[in-house]
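Tokenised fold entry reproduced for everyone:
>
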Amino acid sequence: MIYLKAFSHAFLHALKNLLPIIVVVVFFQLVILQQVPDNTLSMALGLLIVAVGVALFLQGLELSIFPVGKSLSNQFAKRGSVPILLSFGFAIGFSAVVAEPALIAVAQQAEEISQGRVDALTLRLLVAISVGFVIALGVFRTIFGFPLHWFMIIGYMLVVLVTFFAPEEIVGLAYDSGGVTTNIVTVPLIAALGIGLAASIRGRNPLTDGFGLVALAVMVPMITVQLYGIIVFSGPAPDAELTLYSGDSDVGRHVLIGMLLDLATMLRDVIPIILTILFFQYLILKRPLSNPPKIIFGFILVILGLYAFVVGLKMGLFPIGSSMAEQLISLERYGFIYLFAFMIGFATTMAEPALIAVGQQAEQAASGKINGTAIRVLVAIGVAVGITIGVHRIISGGSMHYYIISGYTLVIILTALAPRYIVALAYDLGGVTTSEVTVPLVTALGIGLATHIEGRNVLIDGFGLIAFASIFPIVTVMIYAIVMQWYTASLSKVKS
């Protein structure tokens, strides 16, 4: 009865979060395109299944991943073994990312479009090893209390420096690879690890020390993939020239189909995490899980929720989203494309399960300093602005280098100015925007634009929108914190 009540509450909450997407789709179909899609019934059913999936997933998180992650962190912290904690961080990071569906899809697209110069498996392993290493580094930071902002400032200075030397064919892909490492399974687990560790160590603050692992997981793959690109693109070019992608007009649809998974893929996504947890729980800690039936039930809900989630997206949003993007391009009225990019960026972000989960965690950890709903709106505005700027880059043919370097230079400046309590959370929020909802839509939009606009190269221009969706939420959240800090200080002066 308790589970049923919690499910119904989560289901209604999910329906409310999907409302912006429905509004965007209906507005563009009826007002801009002035036609009713043939698959209206399928779309409505798909949205209903999405809501069921989100409700199951969030309930499963509360029963399994969150408590297990926090429990393991607490037990490792009590043992005080730094090597074991670092090993656990690496294993969680690697196992969660190596089978990440969005990363697999992006890597396969990159191998096909680059005509084999980028190897899909090598790319995935590089990203997974990078994330494993950086989660271990983040655990090290939390244990010893090093401030996150120095890690991020130095890290993104390295990102910008490497971007300056990286070939243009790899830049967009590298930033997208960083963005897709964080999905609706890995984000809650990594967040639970950081928060649990910070809460169990005396002198650590869950808000300033617990968040930040997701941010690091996004940043480091950007460096390693660009270094990989410098190596693979420094050799002789293949016989076929790397020109405008000559795939069929349904390339966006194929990308989406490749990213929509069946139940077996959901199991593959979750099993590495389960095996890692069991290994450390039973072989390292040599302790049984507390309340295994509840945890098993929670993992089943997570898997079923994920499956329902992506099936619903496949039936409801992706077919209509892909066809709308193609139709808007054929209208040759780019203002509508900008409007679509902004509105769909905002709507999909507001419905993002990982953002909902992390927003709730942040609100609990902040003890009144942060409102979860306000944070979600700020992040959604950031994603909308970012995707719109990214779309403008594709339409105008601008260099990815200049846009990215400018964006992260702004982030570095804001990091130095922002209050310390918001820095880790702001970077994490930039990472959680690119999950199962956003990645397929944004990837399809970018590849669709690059395919249909004359003179664009899909490898150079088609990738990169995910990067913009990750940068600008960091900017909006930090600006908000800086303004609120200034406002509070001004108010205090007036009162005194």
